[in-house]
């Protein structure tokens, strides 16, 4: 793998370089690259159902990557490609071959394209007052991109009561939802969001406490 490349943080449009270094005695004479998936839907518009099944079966095995897509020097081969589709080149293998034969087990790369964040976990109202609810969640996987967090606050009588977004780069989503009515039940719908989209929402209920009167009253 090329230095600085995170295979779980690849975005569409990135240039990806995979590095395969093979050691063997005797030294490998050939290093070859293969991919396990190939996206053909955009190139073929119409198929009968029987023809479609045959095409699918033909592409189930590993397919060789054209030699012009990679370079090999001594014991190291480098495959560079432009990420333009989530399926193409998602699973890539590298084989070395010498006078004795071909590698039994290849070097395997799994490239995970960036996507929407996972839903938040274990969202809880950990404290409350007569005017505010304090909410804490565990963040899910960010999809390989920077994420921020938001919460929609619903009150039955008025629909969406508040709309709070947290755009700061923090690792733990915490919300202070204030300006609420005393002794009222609220529905909190909490989500994570990045440039690829929004996660599923987690819904929890919270109750504000009774208002406290002034001393002497």
UniProtKB/TrEMBL annotation:
PROSITE patterns: FN3, IG_LIKE. Residues 119-212 form the Fibronectin type-III domain. CDD domains: FN3. SUPFAM superfamilies: Fibronectin type III (SSF49265), Immunoglobulin (SSF48726). It comes from the Eukaryota. This is Ig-like domain-containing protein. Gene3D superfamilies: Immunoglobulins (2.60.40.10). Residues 3-112 form the Ig-like domain.
